[in-house]
Predict the structure.
Amino acid sequence: MTLRRAAFITGIVVLCAWTSVPIYLIALGAVGGRTVVNSWPKPFLPPADLSFGTMREFLDISGVWSSAFYSVEAAVLCMSFSILLGVPAGYALARFVFPGATTYRLLIVLTRAFPVAILALPLTVGFIRLGLYDTPLGVGLMHTTLALPFAVLVSASLFQAIPRELEEAAWVFGCSPVRGFLWVVLPLALPGVAATAIFAFVISWNEVFAASVLTVRHKTLTAYLLSVLSESPLHVQFAGGFVLIIPSVLFIFLVRKRLFSMWGIANR
Amino acid sequence: MRNVLAWLGSTLFTAGLLTTAADASRAESLVFLSTQLRPIEEAQNMRKVILKDFPREVDYVTEQPPQLPVRIKAEQQGVTHTIDVVGALHGELQPLVPLDALVPLDDLAGQLNGRGIPDQLMTLGKFGTAHQLYIPWMQASYIMVANREALPYLPGGADINALGYDQLASWASAIQEKTGKRLLGFPAGPQGLMHRFFEGFLYPSYTGGVVVPFRSEAAEAMWAYFALLWKSVNPNSTSYNFMQEPLLSGDVWIGFDHIARMLDALRQKPDEFVAFPAPSGPKGRGYMPVLAGLAVVKGAPEMNGAMALIDYLDQPETQILTARSVGFFPVVKANLPPDLKPGLRLGANAIEKMQSAKDALPALLPIGLGQRGGEFDKVFMDTFQLVVLRGQKPRAVLDREAETLRRLMTETDAPCWQPDPPHTGACQVQ
Amino acid sequence: MRARYIPYLLIAPSLGFLTMLFFVPLAQTIALAFQADGIWSTENFARMAVDLNFTDAVVNTFEIVIIVVPLQLLLALAMAMMLQHVRAGRDIVLWIWSIPLGISDLAAGLVWLAILTDKGYLNTVLLALGVLSGPQSWLTYETPATLLAAIVVAELWRATAIVLVILVSGVQLIPKEYGEAAEVFGATPWQRFTRVTLPLLRPSIQTALILRTVLAFEMFAIVLSIGGRNFPVLVSEAFNWQYNQQDFGVAAAYAVIVMGVSLAATLVYLRVLRTPAEQR
């Protein structure tokens, strides 16, 4: 058993390393500056003289902080809308068999199947007409269309796995369908809803293309940095990439426990 | 979860407050949208150094070149206009002409008469129409840069400032033989400017033209030469967008690129590199000058401010400041000060040598292609891919691509431009 | 007794939202694909098909999808199952494994390029191990096999977390009793996995596969970083036609192809992996 356990633990460690080593390398490139990025053979340890200079340069640039706020605004809006629109739809797909269900699923998938880069022009014109051009709200709405398929399909698969009997039991005991949903089903589905929230936030935070197309002066942080970075020297690109990783990693860390809240309940 | 929500809620609220405050302060500023000076350091330079002495507040926004026509078109079709001044390359402003998005600047051009902007550049700014659609802003060109370590391998008797393409080939293969590595590089990546090399340097030098002799025998010989030269080229070239990176890391010893994309290398290690003009071929030393211009968008909210900004950017002092920061040189009469940093001085000298060479053959940017400049570039890049990368016979490829080129020229009705001889009607491929 | 209109009421808000913000511009763009100079024609598709990169783009895209998606499913399943047996620090491990979710395509492309380039980290390790004697190219047009492998590895790293998070949320809703009952009846761990866990995970697997496949057909940022011009895929070509050649018709044609293929794949998944009604 110990050998098996050891193999198991090795497996876990290897997978963790596989995930984190590239992140470490990004950080290395970010603080190592030009010397690390252009050297051969590449060093695996940070140089004696760390330079946070490049990253400090970023934070100094006019507009970085306000674009960070725009990013957060757009991401939170995306998250809220995706959940508000997606969870009820997922419930419908899971609990009801109705004509048009498959068509609806396909339509939802369709929104991700079409590359957003090609939709740029009609979208921009549409947004200008609606008065949403160059606003975080507009960007948030656009990102919601990107995150909605996740919200709908993930919550559908979640609700499918929650036995109908639980709800029906609640009705027997006098709960209205709505209360039954809110107090019995939803708590069980919380991990899925948390997963949806994470996807929505992260999709919005990382999304570059639609955000740069739809904004002029109120760019999100990613659009702002990445569009400028693509022509900067390599070490600057690393610094930018690293700065962008931190908030989403932090967010996932904050909600990680939610993904496991149901171990207890599953042990009925 | 509640804590997280509370935290997010309060962040949102604060964000809302702060951004409203930030917005209020930006309400009165001019919006200057530019496809040039995009990298962070250059953009900061523009904001903190170049625009510092302009009386009004300017919101300097950068844009990726392919996005420019999309954004302008969208604003034209909408109700709100945000952009006042646009700064972009000649080729990037061209798609805006058929959109009728640019304000004629004839009055402003008259005002700038005494600044010494060459007539040739002002004419380019008309795009073949009767009105001045952009005012020239700054100019640059393409150069070659070599690591000093490559110099010993130069063929005997070759003058680096007056190389021929054959000598370039001998040089590169000598390096390959002696070191075993392919150290010549070209910017053939997805965002690289390789197409300009063919349009402005190789074709004019070998055939004396660009469109007319596209499938001539001279062109066939040229492609055969280039396919042979490619054997000494670092295969990673198809990923290089900016030659300064591989030059700095030593992956490449000899490179060709736009001067702005070489500057980082020249600035970082001026003692390690030399800059020199592109080589010459049988018909001369072809080169392509690059011109950036300033235009005003129709419906701009601050028309007067826009004109004033253009005037300011074209003043000799501002032009010198720009040259110091970004490697684009003045279009007005302004003497570059002697205390230019060494890297920039290297580049400036190379460009000067190229422009004043006895066999210099300027090849202009395409005129009259409207929005289809990209299709024009694709003809050359496709030919390159088929002949050089996939090893197909030049004659068959040239004939096929010539058909595409012919169709493009007829459909756009674009007249011939230098160095092709002038021709009434659309430029014809022979 | 549920009123018949209730499901429609529940999906109405999302449908309305998408119609306004997505389907209308989509219809405009699709129309663009089937028009040339204002008349309905398939000229754009013809032009797309004879382009020198078209066949490569189609083949490359399918290669990537067919290789990457199954691998990711297997890897994510293994990771999800392993997670079940971790006792202490379970949430930390899941957090580490989902970090790639938070990395934008461009940053991921950047770091894998740094690892796999001639003078990159991989070659540094190989040099130290004595396998190589100097910088070695893996990503050029002269080495198509290693280029494909590189893109597969980078995509595997970047996007497995998406599948993992969906599967993990699904796994937790499987009541422990089923597995315990099977164990009581003498089922081996493998049998428990294939006969109990997998069937109950079907809805999540279906969702994960649909989403991952659709995203895989759309991938292009990582391919562009690592492969440059050497590895055209459908969306990178669409992007080039749209922005470099300013030919919106052909770009829309490419996008229509991507959409068609994704929808076909979705239909296949919906059919093959459908959950029988009793199981809901």
Chain B has two domains: 2-139+290-351, 142-289+359-412. Chain B has a mean pLDDT of 86.
